[in-house]
Design goal:
Blueprint lengths: L3 E4 L7 H12 L2 E4 H13 L4 H6 L14 H10 L3 H8 L12 E4 L7
Parallel strand pairs: 1-3, 2-3
Protein backbone atom coordinates (compact mmCIF):
# COMPACT_ATOMS: atom_id res chain seq x y z
CA UNK A 1 0.00 0.00 0.00
CA UNK A 2 1.31 3.45 -0.93
CA UNK A 3 0.12 6.77 0.41
CA UNK A 4 1.07 10.42 0.74
CA UNK A 5 0.89 12.50 3.89
CA UNK A 6 0.73 16.27 3.39
CA UNK A 7 1.68 18.64 6.21
CA UNK A 8 0.31 22.15 5.82
CA UNK A 9 0.72 25.27 7.92
CA UNK A 10 2.00 28.82 7.96
CA UNK A 11 5.59 29.75 7.17
CA UNK A 12 8.14 28.82 9.83
CA UNK A 13 5.66 26.66 11.76
CA UNK A 14 7.82 23.53 11.73
CA UNK A 15 6.37 21.70 8.70
CA UNK A 16 9.80 20.82 7.37
CA UNK A 17 11.15 19.72 10.72
CA UNK A 18 8.17 17.46 11.33
CA UNK A 19 8.12 16.15 7.76
CA UNK A 20 11.81 15.23 7.77
CA UNK A 21 11.58 13.62 11.22
CA UNK A 22 8.54 11.52 10.30
CA UNK A 23 10.06 10.49 6.97
CA UNK A 24 13.27 9.42 8.71
CA UNK A 25 11.40 7.61 11.48
CA UNK A 26 9.22 5.57 9.09
CA UNK A 27 11.65 5.25 6.18
CA UNK A 28 9.54 7.28 3.75
CA UNK A 29 10.58 9.61 0.97
CA UNK A 30 10.26 13.32 1.77
CA UNK A 31 9.46 16.23 -0.54
CA UNK A 32 9.57 19.88 0.52
CA UNK A 33 7.20 21.43 -2.03
CA UNK A 34 8.59 24.87 -1.21
CA UNK A 35 11.88 23.74 -2.74
CA UNK A 36 10.05 23.08 -6.01
CA UNK A 37 8.95 26.72 -6.15
CA UNK A 38 12.42 27.88 -5.09
CA UNK A 39 14.01 25.76 -7.81
CA UNK A 40 11.68 27.29 -10.38
CA UNK A 41 12.51 30.74 -9.01
CA UNK A 42 16.27 30.15 -9.21
CA UNK A 43 15.91 29.07 -12.83
CA UNK A 44 13.83 32.18 -13.57
CA UNK A 45 16.61 34.29 -12.08
CA UNK A 46 18.95 32.42 -14.45
CA UNK A 47 16.86 33.71 -17.38
CA UNK A 48 14.14 31.12 -18.01
CA UNK A 49 10.43 31.87 -18.18
CA UNK A 50 8.53 30.65 -15.10
CA UNK A 51 6.46 28.19 -17.12
CA UNK A 52 9.49 26.70 -18.89
CA UNK A 53 11.41 26.49 -15.62
CA UNK A 54 8.54 24.59 -13.99
CA UNK A 55 7.84 22.33 -16.97
CA UNK A 56 11.47 21.20 -17.24
CA UNK A 57 12.22 20.89 -13.53
CA UNK A 58 14.45 17.92 -12.76
CA UNK A 59 15.60 16.36 -9.45
CA UNK A 60 19.01 18.04 -9.64
CA UNK A 61 17.35 21.46 -9.66
CA UNK A 62 16.02 21.03 -6.10
CA UNK A 63 19.51 20.46 -4.73
CA UNK A 64 21.02 23.76 -5.86
CA UNK A 65 22.96 25.43 -3.05
CA UNK A 66 21.36 28.84 -3.72
CA UNK A 67 17.73 27.83 -3.09
CA UNK A 68 17.62 29.44 0.37
CA UNK A 69 19.01 32.79 -0.83
CA UNK A 70 16.77 35.81 -0.17
CA UNK A 71 16.40 36.74 -3.85
CA UNK A 72 15.32 33.20 -4.69
CA UNK A 73 12.78 33.26 -1.86
CA UNK A 74 11.33 36.54 -3.10
CA UNK A 75 11.06 35.21 -6.64
CA UNK A 76 9.52 31.95 -5.36
CA UNK A 77 6.66 33.96 -3.88
CA UNK A 78 6.06 35.52 -7.29
CA UNK A 79 6.20 32.34 -9.38
CA UNK A 80 4.12 30.31 -6.91
CA UNK A 81 0.98 32.25 -7.80
CA UNK A 82 1.28 31.70 -11.56
CA UNK A 83 -1.28 29.23 -12.92
CA UNK A 84 1.16 27.82 -15.50
CA UNK A 85 3.77 27.12 -12.84
CA UNK A 86 1.24 25.46 -10.55
CA UNK A 87 -0.12 23.34 -13.40
CA UNK A 88 3.38 22.16 -14.33
CA UNK A 89 4.30 21.35 -10.74
CA UNK A 90 1.09 19.43 -10.10
CA UNK A 91 2.54 16.85 -12.45
CA UNK A 92 5.71 16.65 -10.33
CA UNK A 93 5.96 13.65 -8.09
CA UNK A 94 8.00 13.06 -4.96
CA UNK A 95 11.11 10.94 -5.21
CA UNK A 96 10.32 7.21 -5.36
CA UNK A 97 9.18 6.06 -1.93
CA UNK A 98 11.12 3.49 0.03
CA UNK A 99 9.53 0.32 -1.33
CA UNK A 100 5.76 0.63 -1.36
CA UNK A 101 5.59 2.52 1.93
CA UNK A 102 4.58 5.93 0.59
CA UNK A 103 5.94 9.35 1.43
CA UNK A 104 5.66 12.64 3.29
CA UNK A 105 5.50 16.11 1.86
CA UNK A 106 5.02 19.51 3.35
CA UNK A 107 4.02 22.83 1.92
CA UNK A 108 1.44 23.79 -0.67
CA UNK A 109 1.19 22.21 -4.09
CA UNK A 110 -2.31 22.77 -5.40
CA UNK A 111 -4.11 23.97 -8.47
CA UNK A 112 -6.09 26.84 -6.93
CA UNK A 113 -4.87 30.10 -5.48
Amino acid sequence: MSFTVAIDGPAASGKGTIGRALAARFGFAHLDTGLLYRAVAARVLDGMTPEDAAATLAPEHITRPDLRAPDVGQMASKVAVLAGVRAALLGARPPPPCGDRGGWRHGKLRSGA
